[in-house]
Write a structure and sequence with these properties.
mainly alpha, 0% strand
Length: 109
């Protein structure tokens, strides 16, 4: 049960981290970058520390990827980010998720 709870909360935090990474790269408000970088690091560290505690099966890795994508989309689709949403395609989001999760799962070996 604890493993599944960490899968859910860790995936959510990693999704938040990825959304923040993309917001930093595509924002029209450079004055917010420092704050977003701090938030991104916090989300990434907390999320990955939860996920790093376990060995994940392929099906669990797929579930993590799906949950991360869902959370990142949820954050990026908020009305306050409408200025950057147009610039971030599904393809860009998928690429960022796959790249970060590949690095993470590779580091676990």
């Amino acid at each position: 049960m604890a493993k599944h709870n960490d899968l859910i909360s860790g995936s959510k935090q990693v999704g938040n981290s990825i959304a923040h990474t993309l917001k930093i790269n595509f924002t029209n408000h450079p004055e917010t970058i420092n704050k977003m970088q701090n938030e991104e690091a916090k989300y990434r560290d907390e999320g990955l520390s939860k996920l790093f505690n376990y060995t994940w099966t392929d099906s669990e890795k797929k579930e993590i990827e799906e949950r991360v994508m869902k959370q990142a989309k949820k954050i990026l689709n908020k009305p306050e980010y409408s200025d950057i949403r147009i610039k971030i395609s599904e393809e860009i989001l998928e690429k960022e998720v796959k790249q970060q999760l590949t690095q993470f799962f590779g580091a676990m070996r």
